[in-house]
Amino acid sequence: MENITIAKIAQELGIKESQITKVLELTAEGNTIPFIARYRKEITGNLDEVQIKSIIDLDKSLTVLAERKAVVLAKIGEQGKLTDQLRSEIEAAEKLADVEELYLPYKEKRRTKATLAREAGLFPLARLILQDASHLQAEAEKLTSEAFPTAEAALAGAVDILTEAISEDTKLRAWTYHEIQTNSAIYSKVKDGDLDDKQVFQIYYDFSEKVATMQGYRTLALNRGEKLGILKVGFEHHVDKIIRFFEVRFKVKNNYIVEAVQQAVKKKILPAMERRIRTELTEAAEDGAIQLFSDNLRSLLLIAPLKGRVVLGFDPAFRTGAKLAVVDATGKMLTTQVIYPVPPAKPAQIEAAKKELSQLIGQFGVEIIAIGNGTASRESEAFVAQVLKEHPQVSYVIVNESGASVYSASELARHEFPDLTVEKRSAISIARRLQDPLAELVKIDPKSIGVGQYQHDVSQKKLTESLDFVVDTVVNQVGVNINTASPALLAHVAGLNKTISENIVKYRETEGLITSREAIKEVPRLGTKAFEQAAGFLRIPESDNLLDNTGVHPESYPAVSRLFERLDIRQLDAAAQARLKAVKVEELASQLGIGQETLKDIIADLLKPGRDLRDSFDAPVLRQDVLNIRDLRIGQKLEGVVRNVVDFGAFVDIGIHEDGLIHISKLSKDYIKHPSQLLSVGDLVTVWVDKLDVEREKVNLSLIAPNESN
């Protein structure tokens, strides 16, 4: 069975069986996905994290499928009804649902009307109906009983037996399933429009789409509208066609057979297939939504940090005042303050707020102001822009504050800042989110970050697993400074967990800075395996060994020594870099006793020690003045930042109160299947205003220049 599983994984993923075997062996040995992807490339054939996870996930699901098949085969075998053909069909099934369909006729059932009829001895009468015997009434009279006292009751019982038999016919059910998938439609009607006060589901009040072309986000929208009681959702079938297909299976046709077919189709098979298809549509939609959320999260986590800047975090509010926090270039809090910059504050309070903000800028050398994009954000932006006219050296950025309130009320935030209010903690988080998005966002449940669609309507278990994988992957790809990282960030490093991460921080606090990777071994509970998995992803800028601040794993240090000796490198100056660039990897790898992929990675790390892959991505847009929707004109060219990518388009921050929408039809002149083919969260884009609704503050944008439109 194991060889069959590996062959199936290879077929589905397009990966060699030998690679799959190695991945599963490495995983069984306790190796993490980031470690396998980065430091075992020669063994896996250079598979990346996503491919490795796909192998592991598919192996788990196929194992579950194989175990269920074994149980079903055993149960049917116990009944003495397992034929060679049935065994082959079960073993060939590729879905759990298909296995259950094949098992249905043999499954132990609750007592039904058909069960009672069989117990009353009406099975021979059901057989006579199929033969269309002319003396059915007389035969039914002979089979009356206390449970079925009349001929009509006996015949109805026989029809119940036929109905159940027809409804459990696996071939008929399979045909119906395919027919619905191919030719049926899903519809929705308004059930209670009063519950939809914002008209969110208006487009689904009278909606119909073929099952075959149903889009994932529409499936999730229908599910939510139905759950809220706003929509009624159903199927439109070619019922007459389905019934005709069933009826021609019988050699004779009489009223009893017609009735049995009608009941089997309408009351049994169609409802069962509808449930199955809606489940499958929902699962596919959830998988798509989760993948989109994961892609967006990855892009968000990889937004370039603004390193070495003094930042003022500005958490806006109307009535309770704006909470400010100044953090230094390392993210350390310098001060916090509350000001009242916008109405309903009185004019005197607003003037005082201007002076207080100016004083903070001057006193602490603030270089950038990070404004949260929540309540009162744009009003606060206008206030900040006015103050910055006197401080032209300072810029501001609108920062997506989704999840900041979740963090600020968390146990982690209380531990970091026990003496501060929730709002002031939020201001610190907003400032740090600009300085190092990754380090700050890992403190927040990814589901609260707000870069998905319908995230509350999908399997929370699957969503959490997928988002955690994204966070783990990005953290390890970027690398973590062991002397500055929070426990929350360290916990995502391969091989580490919450306890070890907290022990690292405690060790730093009591013993001082960790000055070498070798010293990491002194951290309590950090054993040999954890060190092996984590060491290459932990950076130590303070170390005397430059390799400790690279992605080179300690296991490769001897090979680097041999490399330096062979190339006569004593320091990484320009001459040394030139020699490294000129290396013929194929020849030198074997001489050094390491793999070619490992040598390539070593050279890349040596050419840019301490590099941060996020530096190659777009940096945040810095602004100095505010933009009002009334300033916009159709066709106007603007710069913006992609805030979210969804199935039907992308939302872009262009500096007004609400993000503008680029509909998928306005992304390209050429056909694209999904917006993620062109855009990612954090991308800087040039857009043109396509439509304006000033009163509702709605802006539609286009990536296509007006003179390029067809």
TrEMBL record:
Protein name: RNA-binding transcriptional accessory protein
Ranges for domain S1 motif: 635-704
UniProt xrefs under InterPro entries: HHH_9, NA-bd_OB-fold, Ribos_protein_bS1-like, RNaseH-like_sf, RuvA_2-like, S1_domain, S1_Tex, Tex-like_central_region
Source taxonomy: Bacteria, Bacillati, Bacillota, Bacilli, Lactobacillales
A Pfam family reported for this protein in Swiss-Prot or TrEMBL: Tex_central_region
Residue spans crossing the bilayer: none
